[in-house]
Amino acid sequence: MSVIVFYKLDILISLRLRGGVLQDADSIHSFFCFFHNSSEGDRLRKVEVEPYQEKWPRMFLEEAEKLREIFTGEIIEIHHIGSTSVPGLQAKPIIDIMPVVKDISNVDSFNEEMKQMGYTPKGENGIPMRRYFEKGGDQRSHHVHFYEEGSREIKRHLAFRDYLRTHSHEKQQYGELKQRLAKQFPHDIEAYIQGKEQLVVEIERKALIWFDQE
Question: Among positive and negative, which fits the CA dihedral 11, 190, 161, 205?
Answer without folding.
Answer: positive
